[in-house]
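Quick question about two entries, pasted in order.
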Amino acid sequence: MLIVPVAHLLPSDSMATKVTVNNHGPLRIEGEFTINDPSGKEFGLAGRTVISLCRCGASENKPFCDGAHNRAGFQSVCEARDLPAPKPKV
């Protein structure tokens, strides 16, 4: 399983990072960010400031979206909501 730290923010003069959960599709990330594999190695994004990450699991280019959600009939509607407060650490 690939765990992706979605947004590693850069200094304050950088563009803010925005993550959009697309219905029936990928996570779209816009702004200044890095994406790393579990060992901390950074993916080379070739200067991209917009990418999409696969949510359906069918992409041949994981963790990036290749449009496979359309062929797979992926269905997922995500409406924004407030998360509960984190549980206290014991």
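Here is the second entry:
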Amino acid sequence: MAYWLLVYDGDCPMCRKFIQMIARFDRDKMIDSISFSDFAEKTDKFSYDELEEDIHLIGQKGEVLKKGEAIHKMISILPPLKPFRWMLEGKPGRKFSDLFYFSTKRLRRCMNCPHDKREIRRDR
């Protein structure tokens, strides 16, 4: 069983491609994935709106990472990305993860993904 669960927008073509990429990189099977609509039916820990708003990476021990934190963690645990881990150290690495996340979120909005109609905010 995987240690992390990645909750994503299953209706978004770009998000599904991202999940396929993660699956290819995840040689050790550390990350399972589920669409937020399926996950919302199985749990009451998160609201549907909360799951719809941002990517969630949930650990077996209950830790919840969202937005750039989730991206940062995935990059740090996926084996093929090990050579790039040094770039994630410190504030610049966190800023890169946040930039990647918010750029992707803006792109989703431009592509008219069905679940991303909200205004893009850079809330930190």
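Reply: Helices lie at 13-25, 36-42, 48-53, 67-77, 90-110. Residues 90-110 form the longest helix (21 residues). Hope that helps.
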